Amino acid sequence: MHMARFRLRDRVDWGILDGDQIRTLTGIRFEDPRPGAAVGRLSDVRLLAPIEPLNKVVGIAVNYGEKGERDGPGIFMKQPGTVIGHLDPIVYPRTARSVIHEAELGIVIGRTAQRVPAATAMDHVLGYTCVNDVSGDELLTSDAGHGTSMRVKHFDTFCPIGPVIATGLDGDNLGIQCVLNGKKVVEGSTSDMLWGVAELVAWVSEVMALYPGDVISSGCPDVGEIKVGDTVEMVVEGIGTLRNPVVAIGG
User: Fold this and answer.
1) Which residues contact 90 (CB under 8 A, 6 or more apart)?
2) How many CB atoms lie within 10 A of CB 11?
3) Digit-coded pLDDT (tens) for 172-229
4) Residue 250: pLDDT over 70
5) Strands ordered across the beta sheet of 183-189
6) pLDDT of res. 68
7) How many angstroms separate the CA atoms of 82 and 84, rounded?
8) Mean pLDDT to the nearest integer, 116-125
9) Confidence band of 136 (pLDDT split at 50, 70, 90)
10) What count of other Cβ atoms lies within 10 Å of the Cβ of residue 54?
11) Largest alpha-carbon pair distance within the chain?
């Protein structure tokens, strides 16, 4: 099942995709969503980021590669203004010299999770979405030693999410791709994550309560640079394609 948040004329709502149709969402949105009556064709609506403004996005740092002596991954946040949806533009900051894409699996929480063990963590997961954890690469170095800098991850538009939330998938075994201007530049799999979905939910829930609709962005297999004029696509198996153009400020 694919859930979507959409705008139809002046109304924002949630629905369920059924082929080229979109249906109303009945039941409890993040616990027991079910398709209802047809709203219209997918071409009639604008897909929005499948997250409510009051929900949070938790980022996971370095979840691919070598584990070393770490007992878990790093955790950071993406401020609310970073969130955009499918086809919305990523705005290239005036103060950045190198901006990178990071194709990631987004874990969508369905039930409140606080200090939950990994053994039961999946009971709190609704499904999955695509996330592009856009980052100002050179700022990792230039801002070092100046406190906890928010510039690297927190420019507005630096967190495209969507286009839908998919349920019924094995989040620990999904292919991930990044396609830049029609050319595949990253290919990986969540099976290579150092900490799997259940472990990530448990790890983050020890730090903060996770509420229905919150998203954990689970880390990326590889990165690459994006520039003004590019079109970047995040493709996650079973979910779909999240596509965003890169524009200059005022573009």
Assistant:
1) 84, 99, 132, 134, 157, 158, 160, 226, 232, 244, 245, 246, 247
2) 9
3) 999 999 999 999 999 999 999 999 999 999 999 999 999 999 999 999 999 999 999 9
4) yes
5) 90-92, 240-248, 231-236, 175-180, 183-189
6) 87
7) 7
8) 98
9) confident
10) 9
11) 55
Burial class of residue 3, CB neighbours in 10 A (0-12, 13-18, 19+) = buried
Dist. CA 229–CA 125, nearest whole Å = 36
Amino acid sitting at position 216: I
- 80: number of Cβ within 10 Å: 15
Residue 145 pLDDT grade (very low, low, confident, very high; cuts 50, 70, 90): very low
3-state secondary structure of 139: helix
What distance in Å separates the CA atoms of residue 24 and residue 230, rounded to the nearest whole number? 34
- Banded model confidence at residue 147, pLDDT cuts 50, 70, 90: very low
pTM for the model stands at: 0.94
**Distance of alpha carbon 183 from alpha carbon 68, whole angstroms:** 33
pLDDT on residue 126: 97
DSSP codes, 142-153: HTTTSSS-SHHH
Q: Which of 18, 66, 63, 59 is nearest to 39 (CA)?
A: 18
CA angle 232/184/196 to nearest 5° reads: 85
Cβ atoms of 96 and 187 closer than 8 Å:
no
Give the C-alpha distances (Å, rounded to integers) separating 129 from 76, 107, 185.
Answer: 18, 7, 20
Q: How many CB atoms lie within 10 A of CB 145?
A: 7
